[in-house]
Structures are given as structure tokens and as C-alpha cells.
Amino acid sequence: MSPWRDLADRAGVVLVAPASAGATWDVIQDDYGPDVAGIDQILRHVFARINIDPRRIGIEGFSDGASYALSLGLGNGDLFTHCIAFSPGFVAEPARRGRLRIFVTHGVHDRVLPIDRCSRRIVPRLQRDGYDVVYTEFDGPHVVPADQASAGLTWLVGTS
Predict the structure, then answer these.
(1) Which backbone phi and psi does 112 adopt, to 5 degrees?
(2) What distance, in Å, lies between the first and last C-alpha atoms of the chain?
(3) How many CA atoms lie within 13 A of 9 on its CB side?
(4) Which CATH architecture is the domain 3-41+56-158 placed in?
(5) Domain regions of the chain by residue span
(6) Burial annotation 103-131 (CB, 10 A radius, 16+ → b, else e)
(7) CA distances (Å), 2 to each of 11, 24, 29, in order?
(8) Confidence of residue 134 (pLDDT cuts 50, 70, 90)
(9) Is the pLDDT of residue 1 over 50?
């Protein structure tokens, strides 16, 4: 069993992990398109088969996936209530809807998406815009340490 699945099972969370249709998420290369369509299809499938708590529908990602999760979450805050972003690089500025809660964590030694150019700019902007953001920096590179993954799930389960 993967550590992600084990964490999700222990937290009572349904974990869905779609992959991008291309080398990275569509908005990073151009604009929203096939990846959003694929996520919509997966969500319809899950919602039709599992009783999902509408007060806790989160979107999560790491690296480019974190940037994508933040961007989709802000634009779809009427669906997503929570966003977990591990080492995001940017936010594509959609028309914002709703008011989701946000959890961001980033390694201070990240050389792929340096913290000073990324989370240390993204988080204050979200806070200025009135979003409830929990932000943690950890002593590490461009990774998702197990304790940070666990903290994100604990935060998701503990907030509504």
C-alpha cells in the first residue's frame, strides 16, 4: 500500500489522483482544456458512487500540480472547499468563486521552485485577498515530506 493511500485511509478521505494528459498540466503550457475535462469526468464518477461530504472537497497537488490545484481551487471555490498545495510555483488567475481554505507548505532549500519566488509571494497575496491560509516552511528541498503530507490531511479533516 502506498503511503498516500495509507494516510488517506487512516484519515477517512477519498483520494483521487488524476494525471495530466500531457507532460504537465494544460494551463502551464497553454490554457485549461483536456486536464479540466478529465478531472470533471473523474469527479462525476466519484460523486455518483460515493457519498462525499460537500463541506470537505479538497484539491491537492505538488509542484506544477500544486500550482494547478491552487488555480483550479480559486476558480472553483463553489465546489472545492479546501486546497492543499505542496511547493507551488504560481497561480493562474482565474475569475475567483467562493472562499476555499488553503494549506501551503514549501521547502526552504527548494531549487526547482525557489521559495522566495514562489510561496513567499503567493501566500501573502492570498492572505491580502482575504483567504484563510495555513502556511508552513520546512527545512528541505523540492519534496513532500511525510510529516507535511500528514499535516495537510490532518488540516483537511479538522476544518470545515
Answers:
(1) -80, -50
(2) 28
(3) 6
(4) 3-Layer(aba) Sandwich (3.40)
(5) 3-41+56-158
(6) bbbbbeebeebbbeebbeebbeebeeeeb
(7) 14, 23, 30
(8) very high
(9) no
Q: How many angstroms separate the CA atoms of 78 and 121, rounded?
A: 25
CA dihedral 106, 153, 47, 68 (to 10 degrees): 0
Residue 9 grid coordinates: 485511509
pLDDT digit string (tens) for 30-77?
778 888 899 999 999 999 999 888 888 889 999 999 999 999 999 999
Axis crossing angle, helix 64-75 with helix 34-49, rounded to the nearest 10: 70
**Residues contacting 113, CB < 8 A, separation 6+:** 63, 87, 88, 89, 106, 142
